[in-house]
Amino acid sequence: PADDWNRAAPLMVLGATLRAELFPNEAALGRFVRVGDRRFRVIGVLAASGSGLGMNTDELAIVPVSAALAMFNTNTLFRVLVEARNRDAIEPAKQQVGAIVQARHDGEQDVTVITQDALLATFDKLLGTLTLAVAGIAAISLAVAGILVMNVMLVAVTQRTGEIGLLKALGAPARTIRLAFLTEAAMLSTVGALVGYLLGESGAFALRQLFPVFPAYPPHWAVIAGLGTALGTGLLFGFMPARRAARLDPVQALMKH
Asked: E strands, the chain, where?
């Protein structure tokens, strides 16, 4: 309330989690809460809003500044939160806060003013770096998987030399043989992609169980992109074995068989 901030009024605003734990089945307004050796009357309850700026506002108990200084036996503040009127006012507000604090601290700039945009930009950089690292690991994994698919298909061509020769002797065009091997490569890649998808969903489910506040839900576009990339990789690395099978001479293939 509008009052003298230098007076340690015994008033308190509770976060949503604290209110639910202290007064689960009754109204919190007007009740008293003891913090240490002091009693505070609850005059408000914050709406649930979760974590932000490194703290969970649902678990806060807000008291007047002078009361907090007396409780912790200090005359300094560690952090001051300031809300701008709108997004465009954030940068001017930052400059004004810095100027006010500097003027009150005898011209010394001994505080750091951080905006949410700056924090978000830092997190974006970190996430961007992590994304590049994960993309690099994924690229290596795709290359290894592609080489494995290619080796499997090359072995399949070697083992089916006689069948390929028989098909070509019966008049099967190279396009049909090439398509048959590409279809097999696509099936191998699809099975691997589905197994990977199921493993990813299982990992995300385990994360949600261990950390309920962490939104471990893969976006639909990422799932589609992952399945499509796996299928494309299989077709890409399966093309050479398929082309090799299509180019076999039927006579030599039947002789080798």
From this structure: 11-14, 32-35, 38-45, 51-52, 55-56, 61-62
Per-residue pLDDT of 43-71, as tens digits, reads 999 988 766 656 778 888 989 888 888 88
pTM of the model: 0.48
> The tokens of 11 are what?
């008033």
Nearest partner of 241 among 187, 177, 193, 191, judged by Cα: 177
Read off the pLDDT band of 188 (50, 70, 90).
Answer: confident
Q: How far is CA 221 from CA 133, 217, 218, 229, 234, in A?
A: 20, 12, 8, 12, 20
pLDDT at position 221 is 82
Contact 71, 38 (CB under 8 A): yes
* pLDDT tops 60 at residue 257: no
Return the residue matching tokens 């230098």. Answer: 6
Helix ranges (H only) for 72-173 are 90-104, 116-159, 161-169
Which residues, 6 or more positions from 44, have their beta carbon under 8 angstroms from its beta carbon? 13, 14, 29
CB 131 within 8 A of CB 222: no
**Residue 8 contacts residue 70 (beta carbons within 8 Å):** yes
Report the distance separating Cα 9 and Cα 14, nearest Å: 15
